[in-house]
Design goal:
The protein has 335 residues and is mainly alpha-helical. The protein has 15 helices and no strands. 35% of the residues are buried.
């Protein structure tokens, strides 16, 4: 196997183990042993089951969006795209490789790079939009989280979060964003300006696609939401497995906030940021010493297991060159 790939995988393994060990070490309490003795193995199967259901909805979303662009993907191709996202997202800075992995596999399936890019972009936008729309419900229902914030401020923040996706789509139908990008990036490098305009073009294409088949897009949006909620539900499964009393809406709401932040995390796959955020949000909901263990259980179930599966399908498909852009570039040249 290629040395670069081996080094990257070893670095990722050491990084993940170090973060997991540090989180458990700094949060562990002797009282946690009492709950660990009550741990019921069935919750592991339940967590894997609900995770699998989330991945199924993720695949259905991908198939629906592919249909919107007049393309079709087989079940095997969809599995490759979904799992490869987890793999390259964890071995590249800022999870940037996840999008590239999806485009690579869709190109391998015969989908033109331009269409694949739009589909991947829309998938990401849908996930972020779904979480943004849930923020108002989380703020209004989780009083323990925002007891320091006046009701009027919560209402204003909620209105802003609901308005953001709508305003973004409407703006894409005008030329105002082009003028703003020109003005804001005027003093930056040419390469940076080019990247900004590429991002804007992709967003505009995505908005056009979303308006082309509203019913299919709405179905994909619902599948997107169900996928995310199922994946987040792995955490309550472990709560139940340790006989911890909790409120479903509160736990799921905090998972929504945490994962919304992770979309903008600079670390590979949100590693480190995810564990720290989990400790901050759930320390008051869990018995002493359990929050670190629960954070690690969540990450290994919902992130690192799909990562391992994604590594298998990605390396089998592209070999040692999986970390390079050669496969994608070759697809672009053939367009």
């Amino acid at each position: 196997m290629h040395r670069k790939l081996i080094r990257r995988l070893l670095w990722m393994f050491v990084f993940v183990i170090a973060i997991s060990a540090a989180v458990i070490y700094f949060t562990f309490d002797i009282r946690a042993l009492e709950y660990l003795t009550m741990f019921e193995p069935w919750c592991i199967a339940a967590a894997f089951g609900i995770l699998g259901l989330g991945l199924v909805f993720d695949g259905l979303r991908l198939m629906t969006l592919a249909e919107v662009t007049d393309e079709k993907l087989t079940i095997r191709q969809v599995i490759n795209v979904v799992l490869s996202n987890y793999f390259l997202a964890l071995v590249t800075p800022g999870a940037s490789g996840g999008a590239v992995a999806q485009i690579m596999f869709m190109r391998k399936a015969g989908v033109p790079v331009a269409k694949a890019t739009v589909v991947v972009f829309v998938r990401t936008i849908m996930s972020i939009t779904f979480l943004i729309l849930l923020v108002p419900f989380v703020l209004h229902s989780d009083h323990a989280l925002v007891d320091w914030m006046p009701t009027s401020v919560i209402t204003i923040v909620s209105v802003l979060f609901v308005s953001l996706p709508v305003a973004a789509v409407l703006l894409m139908r005008t030329r105002y964003p082009e003028f703003w990008i020109i003005g804001l990036t005027n003093n930056f490098s040419r390469d940076f300006r080019r990247k900004c305009f590429i991002w804007y073009k992709e967003f505009k294409q995505a908005s056009f696609i979303m308006g082309k088949s509203p019913l299919k897009v709405m179905r994909a949006f619902i599948e997107s939401g169900l996928s995310l909620l199922c994946i987040y539900a792995t955490v309550p499964m472990f709560f139940m497995g340790m006989n911890i009393k909790f409120e479903w809406l509160q736990v799921m709401g905090r998972m929504v906030l945490l994962n919304l932040v992770l979309y903008f995390s600079p670390t590979p796959g949100g590693s480190g940021v995810a564990e720290a955020g989990f400790v901050v949000l759930f320390s008051e909901l869990l018995p002493g010493g359990l929050v670190g263990i629960m954070a690690v259980l969540w990450r290994f179930t919902a992130e690192y297991l799909p990562f391992l599966l994604g590594a298998v399908v990605s390396i089998r498909a592209f070999g040692a060159n999986v970390l390079s852009m050669k496969n994608l570039k070759k697809g672009e040249d053939q367009e």
